[in-house]
Automatic annotation (TrEMBL):
Residue ranges constituting the Histidine kinase domain according to the UniProt record: 248-458
GO molecular function: ATP binding; phosphorelay sensor kinase activity
Record-given protein name: histidine kinase
Keywords: ATP-binding, Coiled coil, Kinase, Membrane, Nucleotide-binding, Phosphoprotein, Transferase, Transmembrane, Transmembrane helix, Two-component regulatory system
Any coiled-coil regions, as ranges: 215-242
Amino acid sequence: MINSLSGRFLILTVIFVMIAEVMIFVPSVARYREDFLLNRLERAQIASLALLADDMIDSELEAELLLNAGVFNVVLRRDELRQLVLSSPMPEEVSATYDLRDATALTLIRDAMVRLLTLEPEMIRVIGHPFRDGGLLIEITIETTELRAAIIDYGIRILMLSAVISIVTAGLLFLAVRVLLVKPIKGVVGHMQSYAMAPEDARRVIQPSASVTELREAEEALQSLQMQLTQALRQKERLAQLGGAVARVSHDLRNILTSAQLFTDRIEMSEDPTVKRMAPKLVNSIKRAVSLCESTLAFGRAEEPAPTLTLFNLAELVGDVIDSERLAIDDFDLSLSEDVPGNLMVRADPEQMYRILANLVRNARQAIIGTGQPGEISVSARTGDDAWCIDVIDTGPGLPKKAQEYLFQPFQGGARKGGSGLGLAISEELVRGHGGTLTLLKTDETGTAFRIRLPMGDVT
């Protein structure tokens, strides 16, 4: 109960109401004290009227008048010269004088708190204006016991009333919070729990219904999140199904390519110079295709296999990639160039590096050919202080906005119509497996540039 939202709200409401009542209590007590003293002044003025009717009154009547007025002495100044006085013996000396004629609110509050906290009875003098213009000044002397008792009694009644108001107010607010906040929040929690049981079921997505603006905004945000999550789960399920299909196709394709690999030995024995020149590249392409099928099967079981790091000549590998792409160009006006030092040795997985570069160069080729305009693709490499940097730059049309937004995300970052976006996603994952990074340096209407950064040292 205490740890619940409604319980804490109830406790805070009681506390805040009591604080408000205390702030009301202090000036109320000051006002009650002032009214008490003004009442005594008025009663004393009425008692003094007997002296006006008869200048000579006996002592017994004077004592009765003072007793009824609740005072010991009365001084009524009717004009500058004449004063009427009723008096009786005082048990002690006057300890304080209070002038109500020009007293400020702070002064009244201070005097009331002092009187409430003073335990010992005192004799005080009170000065005020006579009622109904009955003179210039009236002054009385009273004992504070009855005054303090009246203030305490009034304070107790005020506090009891405050307690009742606090309980009633807190109870009403408690019910209001339960209806307006707690119940809708529990409904949202129930929707979340129901959705967690079957996030693929679109029927479990929350439908905003709250009338409170903030709660409705929360429901709408939750609805958007659930819809995005449901869509992502469906996409992952489709990807899993596609992965299974690709794994099956790769399995059969690997068998076909393995059979084709057996026939390459006879091709290599041909005396035709063109065949002799092209046969090694055909053999290498078939080997890479077989390796790709095996890697695809491994990907279907888990992730891309860890790279096998070896030292190899990067210029030779880049040359193989360029030669393979030239075969796909035919007569199109597209220039392929490389700027890689002939002695540059790189420590990486050569098969995976071939796939990375082939994906980047192929994407660039397809983008340029798609425009129908001449273009150029260049691959350059250099050795930095702690990493090898390989740049693939083209003069194509640049990546579309959607491809930039979903860069390196499979099936979403396709740069051309009909593209799946797998090439960049696979390349980025393979580079990341080397501990490196694949970065888009720039893309606009003048072309696109990617940089592969492979660290030289081992992780320490």
